Amino acid sequence: xxxxxxxxxxxxxxxxxxxxxxxxxxxxxxxxxxxxxxxxxxxxxxxxxxxxxxxxxxxxxxxxxxxxxxxxxxxxxxxxxxxxxxxxxxxxxxxxxxxxxxxxxxxxxxxxxxxxxxxxxxxxxxxxxxxxxxxxxxxxxxxxxxxxxxxxxxxxxxxxxxxxxxxxxxxxxxxxxxxxxxxxxxxxxxxxxxxxxxxxxxxxxxxxxxxxxxxxxxxxxxxxxxxxxxxxxxxxxxxxxxxxxxxxxxxxxxxxxxxxxxxxxxxxx
Length: 269
Fold this sequence. Notes:
Elements: H1 9-13, H2 24-44, H3 49-62, H4 73-87, H5 94-106, H6 123-142, H7 153-162, H8 169-182, H9 187-190, H10 193-208, H11 230-247, H12 250-254, H13 261-268
């Protein structure tokens, strides 16, 4: 069975970005910003959720081996989505990816004006095109072409059926949403898909007030039968809570202008 690459404890505790003076809080905010860009761009490009998921995981994985100081989060987000569209066999044109990201990054989100795409023969288009091609190449190179991503959606559906909560629409919807939200975090590089699916299902059931099975003496719980530990589940859930908190901070709002490595360097120094 092919298993996805997970970050080592050393990589998890000291990422390359930290060596360049980027704080843990700023790195988390930029990771969220990059993953959110991928999600928005994927939706606008009309690619399947599986393609968006793979791209977000590749972005998170990339910044465990490379620094935000050296690689713009906007470029890596573009490269990850374009590469993922090939890996998941949901092809999207390079020009569509470029126009969508250009719209998301450069246009004022509050302006009620029609967006004009870049000229196909203009210098801006060629600059963005070069950035995307280089980013895709760097992702493949720095990840050693290890781009397999095991997605948790199928496992989540199986667990919902196995635990007999498939009739509860609120549980299913919340659990699915929590899985999508974990893609804004490094969880998919730190934990396996089974742990993520269990953590999201557990959180959804607690939200709705649905009790999940355990033995009469509470010596064995449902997640233990799925090779998952309580500590790992709680770590995933804490990452989700940290992400929800981070999104509401002024620092996350500032990252709208920090998707370029050059602006990030000015901000850090």
